[in-house]
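Continuing the series of single-chain predictions for the mutant panel. This is the parent chain; the variants come on the following pages.
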Amino acid sequence: MRSFNSIVVSLLIISAVIMINGYVQLNNSVVWGMDKANTYMREQMGGSMDTNQFNIMLQNFIDQLKWKGSILLSLSGILFITCIFSLLFKNSSRLN
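Parent structure:
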């Protein structure tokens, strides 16, 4: 019984950390996408690029970070809620 609770609490902590990571990535996707686009332009293109190409590349970097943050946030949120419910129902069934 105690090992089940310790495993679920460990999963709860891991999912909370991943959820926070996903939220931060989703929240900062525009800033980090701009940094990635600027770095790519400096290193790969020598500092000059057509404006339309840069905007397309910037939008793709932002979309990539948004998708990654959304996936992390949603999957870890589902795991977080599942862990909470499993702790609640496992402990409440033991009281009966």
